[in-house]
TrEMBL record:
Taxonomic lineage from the root: Bacteria, Pseudomonadati, Pseudomonadota, Betaproteobacteria, Burkholderiales
A molecular function (GO) term: deaminase activity
CDD domains: YjgH_like
Protein name (database record): RutC family protein YjgH
PANTHER family xrefs: 2-IMINOBUTANOATE/2-IMINOPROPANOATE DEAMINASE RIDA, RUTC FAMILY PROTEIN YJGH
Amino acid sequence: MSARNVVFPAGRQALYERNRYSPAIRSNGFLFVSGQVGSRPDGSPEPDLEAQVRLAFDNLNAILSAAGCTFDDVVDVTVFIVDPESKFETIWKVVAGYWGEAPHPTLTGIGVTWLYGFQFEIKVIAKLPDEPAAG
């Protein structure tokens, strides 16, 4: 197996090393991003739900940027929501500000009972921009 081509956002490598996972892996023209939550720099959850969702997107966008992508390059999204029946509308208000214009990526939403103290998590796959031809 070849070495994994890991993408680290600025200033958060220690958090990923402590928790023993990669924030994102480049492979075959795609970027596979680990689930991102609304964690503060020390890894603790942001307590306010709307702020937590914004921070999750900020954390996601930092990884996408480190790989040379934006949310416009995202082709597939999976969201995990604790108690979606009571939180979906609040979360989706915030999501709309990050989602961009149509056409939108595919989406899978999963209701869960626990996210390590968080209420929202977003995991994506993005198409890496084509690299310019050597010349």
